[in-house]
Give the backbone structure.
Amino acid sequence: MDADTLLFLNEQPSALGLYEALEDWLLAAFPAAQKRVQKTQITFFHRHVFACVSFARVRKKEERPEPWLTFTLGLPAPLESPRAAVQTEPYPGRWTVHVVLGDPAELDEELLAWTRLAYDFSERKR
């Protein structure tokens, strides 16, 4: 794990294992993807951003698992799922969807399908 990622995870060191599982899962599914560590999030992109990992507090403290990560996807439509903690439409036809993760078992086929949708959506951008 690189130093920038470890520094980012220093905010919540208990999430290290969860993050490692997420990054491995994501890069296995999207081998062309790259990551960029920023101050408030880790961004995954190919041509454009399709997913981000952060500690955004999109659920109340008592509703968040321990450890937790917020996994954010850019989608063409909202999700019909209770797993979507917060959904916003920053501009027409673009939805930002936040999913709170607390266990590597949540890296399932449903989340992969949503991530693939976000990846494909980002690839259509000009």
Q: What stands out?
A: The chain has one domain: 3-123.
